[in-house]
Fold Fe2OG dioxygenase domain-containing protein.
Amino acid sequence: MTIHSLSTKRVSRSAESHVAAQDWRGIVSDLNAHGCAVMPGLLSAEECADLASLYPHEEHFRSHVVMARHGFGKGEYRYFKYPLPDLIDGLRTALYPRLATVANDWNEKMGVAQRYPPDHAAFLKRCHDEGQTKPTPLLLQYGPGDFNCLHQDLYGALAFPLQVAILLSEPGEDFTGGEFVLTEQRPRMQSRAEVVPLKRGDAVIFAVHNRPVQGTKGYYRVNLRHGVSRLRSGRRHTVGIIFHDAK
């Protein structure tokens, strides 16, 4: 076992306590109102450094994507392979039940038949039954001039409607620029953009594809995309926690 695996395993034991300590009433309120919510201080500086240090070590990952080769922007990312690092796996497991409640409420409001089971293992079984067996949590790395185009992380027929990004680097110290950006397209209206300020260790929960919005005649669905603005200087690492697996 590498030193990186040991370090990640050591901090993973507190994943559930990290998640439970958040203000979930406020988080759900922000998700319903804005399509995104911040979890401040989800990870410590030490935990962030441990995760970012995994990036050069290929044994933790199943694939490496250079964004410019695919028209995704500039920068790069690696998808973790199974078994996931304990901290990533623990956060994925602990976050899912709380977000499944929101996801089921959203689908009911939007008239979508899909419902999500209360625990992540049961949801992953559904993914695997659909042939979606590849893990989707990823570690992203940006340098000066890098950015991520607006996009949606769907990966297959079965997709969970919320995901989480955790900033592992400190704005103003490790990098400048590189803000998380979310856009929302409402019917017959121009797109609305929201820049989400984050500090190292903060996480943002956001809608992957659609969310419900209350209108005068009931709820309607809006379409969302997310990305990262151009990095001005330094280096930025982020962990993305996606709850569905890919084909």
Observations:
- The CA atoms of residues 41 and 96 lie 18 Å apart.
- The chain is about 30% helix and 30% strand.
- The two ends are 29 Å apart (CA to CA).
- Confidence is low (pLDDT under 50) at residues 1-13.
